[in-house]
Amino acid sequence: MTDVQLIDVSIRDGNQSLWGAVGMTTRMIAGAAPDLDRVGYRAVELASSTILAMAVRTHKEDPWELLRTAKRLMPNTPLGFLTTGKRFITFYRTPDVLFELAFRLLARNGVTRLWVIDPMHDMAGTRRIAQMAKDAGFTDVVGGICYTTSPVHTDAYYADRIAELDDCDAIDSIYLKDPAGLMTPERLRGMVPMLQGRLKRLRLDEIHSHATTGVSPLTLLEAADLGMTKLHTALPPLANGSSHPSAPTMVNNLRARGHHIDVDLEAMGRASAYWQRQAKIKRLPVGAPREYDEAYYRHTIPGGVQSTLARQLREIGRADLFDAVIEESVAVRRDLGWPIVMTPFAQYIVTQATLNIITGERYKQLSDEVVDLLRGDFGPLPGEVDQNLLDRAMSTARGQLPPSDGSSDETLEQMRRRFGGVDDEELMLRAVMPAEHVDAMKAAKGASAASALSSLLKSVEGRPKLSVAFSNGDVNFELTRSGGAS
Predict the structure, then answer these.
(1) Residue ranges of domains in the chain, CATH in brackets
(2) Model confidence over 306-322: pLDDT tens digits?
(3) How far apart are CA 144 and CA 177, in angstroms?
């Protein structure tokens, strides 16, 4: 039997899948972090660039402080970050000079584990990003194989891709990422030995599979049976649905099957209960197990993207187009050469499908992002692109620009002067986000009641004797310390 370790994805992927990446605040991370640290997780997936962007844009919070808070409250648990290596917050290709800065900031603020997953399986790019991360200070770099179903994503395709990672010294292990929850136990049983057979140095021993189709709890049990030691799970209310299998249930099922796993279920329960209360207070959705849906294998659009599409169509008064757009997305994906339907390509596909339906003519209007994709900004597409679509895209002014390869004509020092000599943390945000979002975050910093209370408590640390009280009408606070106790 397998000695299994769990990786918690509640804060990053659970939040992104069920709460649109906007539900989790720094305070909510802090409220659960001490218990998460006691569970015994192999790692906690803390953030992606999307999570950092939403901290600024939605909550007006400093994302670097979010990382520092998590590290301070989870000192015993490795914290991880997910990247494609092509984008950082932006939906277009991010220059390498900014990725290098981002990685240094992440490592400086306590993030030590990095998952690198290129949806186009540009393995040369993955190797380059892995080395960049090691140079920046990451201690554990995991290269990814991204699973999907299509006529071009065959066993031979995946075997050739995984073999390209084996001799990269900057990669410590490999994981299988199933962003749409398409993997079945039977498919996994055939794939894992085949893929492992193409590796000489590295090991494929980690799996990330969404619960979208309801199959992933069984798939993860099969992974443990096959000797995979690291399973991604989430805590309720951020488990199930389009998120990941529930950790407490997975622990019980692993033990029932005879596998060994050393975790603190009571600590899990306390963290879960805290987030359940927060979800109720904030009226955030709670993930629930889904029934199997065979039709999902046709379009594979992630649940979060579907919910965003439904909301946007309602906002323009065209909610009736939802089914037609989902069906059109199948044709768009085929015409684009079968890209994997995950961020950002899921959004590209759905946006173009919506344009096709609304204009009444396929590819009459092309989104800029689709042109960038066809131009080669994200590497070669896995399958053959429809020639009519390609011709239309390449005839546009944007299509005639050279592909973005990660190079930049502007140095960090030039960017720093452009933004007025700001520090590295602010420079990173201003380089990839609208100025008004960063300005609003800075204006809000320290203005909240929680910030004021935190500052007050810090100001009285070390004072042996004091008495302080304040009130803002509805809230009264009093702190008294006499002698050496408080």
Answers:
(1) 5-282 (3.20.20.70), 296-394 (1.10.472.90), 453-481 (no CATH)
(2) 878 888 899 999 999 99
(3) 6
